[in-house]
Amino acid sequence: MAERKESWTSLASLLGTLAFCQTFLQLVLPPELRHVSLKLLNRALRCFSSYCYFDVTEMDGVNTNELYNAVQLYLSSFASTSASASRLSLTRARNSSVTTFGLSSNDSIADVFDGVAVQWEHAVTQRQSQPSPWRALPDEKRSFKLRIRKRDKDLILNSYLDYIMGKASDIRRNNQERLIYTNSRSNESRGRPWEAVPFKHPSTFDTLAMDPEKKRDIMEDLRDFAAGQAFYQRTGRAWKRGYLLYGPPGTGKSSMIAAMANFLGYDIYDLELTEVPSNSELRKLLMKTSSKSIIVIEDIDCSVNLSNRSKAPKAPAPQSYSDPDAPDAASGGKDWNNNTMTLSGLLNFTDGLWSCCGSERIFVFTTNHIEKLDPALLRSGRMDMHICMSHCSYPALEILLDNYLGSKGEDLGEVAASELQEAVEKAKMTPADISEVLIKNRRNKEKAVSELLEVLKARADRNEKYGGLREECKSNRVEEEEQEKRALESPEEVRDREDNSGKKVEDQ
Ligand SMILES: Nc1ncnc2c1ncn2[C@@H]1O[C@H](COP(=O)(O)OP(=O)(O)OP(=O)(O)O)[C@@H](O)[C@H]1O
Ligand SMILES: [Mg+2]
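Above are the sequence and the adenosine-5'-triphosphate SMILES. Below is the predicted complex in structure-token form.
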């Protein structure tokens, strides 16, 4: 007991001496000298330490330090599960559904990279004065202090910081809402060629009704693409990929683009060709797109007359495309004209040297009429994958039934399922048409299924009677309208027409 009392007394006297020394030094030494001696003391201590320290300050002069933001995001990704962090701050950005964890002031967290242990500390101090009268800085000076063993510094520092930057941009993209950009001449005149709005399309690969195997292939292809930086680098290819989606209206081409964007977490640039006055403007638009994005041109066959836009800007006239085999066409020679937009300009946009001014970009073209597209757009290497979005098959119908009614194929019972299967294969209806029937009756499953069966059978009968569409993916709106007209014609009228033309109705 007496011993403990003694040790308390000596501790108190030690503290008293230290306090006296500090006050004495403060009185005797001028502040500048104090500062210098502290610095020297620190330096001496650092010489004996086996660690080195790096400060990542929030502000770099008057500019925001990107690395600080990246470190903050990166640490937040594992702060909540790390055993070394004792106190966390929680934030949620506007329009975001994600809560972000962060290190509280002066708390620290451990991390391991390539087997090397490091430590981060979040240092927060009050700012003494505003260095810039033009730009107000935060009241607090914040920084992250990185502690690495001296022997590990050269081994990991650069690669670790690169890794953090990459990770942070992934997290940012996943946390943020995706954007859809569109171009217009009025924006261009204001110096902002793309205008963005939040992209909230709910389509995903789960809700997309199509053959599951085909769907798996596409998802795998996208996954490989997104993770393929090293592959593209090694093979000397630009890190981009082209998809051509073709098929009749209402088969899910636009839904597929939305599903791709949601799957990869990419933004969408919806390029309106009719708003692009020339090849050079097209190139400028391309230069202002970001990486990790999908550049979409919908209805490529009819959005613009690529060879002579001034005459017929909206005419769907594929035969008037400039000939890609003609001299200078695809190379952008004579056609690379500043006042017009040409097929060669478009090909350069997707394929030429300028297409590589960013990386990790996907080009998607859609069309209802693949047969009308210029072969130059279809040649291998240009559009890497041609995806036919066709009429609704039974596996696709099962997905729609699950989407709208919450029932699986097996819930229908064997008879209804096989009836539906037979009818849907013969009906050749689009997922959009089938969705309409299901949405209308979604509160009553039995009614929905029976009405769907009725509609499918009626369509199947009609197809059998008047001929189905020749080839699934060649069908188009015009064809369907004609078919509808034919369905309304009397059999005599049909026979007369067949006799006159010498051809069958469905071969026309
Ligand atoms: N494969 C599909 N899976 C799920 N829903 C689909 C599918 N196809 C069409 N739909 C439904 O039909 C609607 C129209 O589809 P979408 O706009 O994707 O068709 P599209 O092929 O782009 O048509 P268009 O050629 O006229 O542009 C969608 O909102 C969606 O609800
Ligand atoms: Mg569409």
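Confidence is low (pLDDT under 50) at residues 307-337, 493-508.
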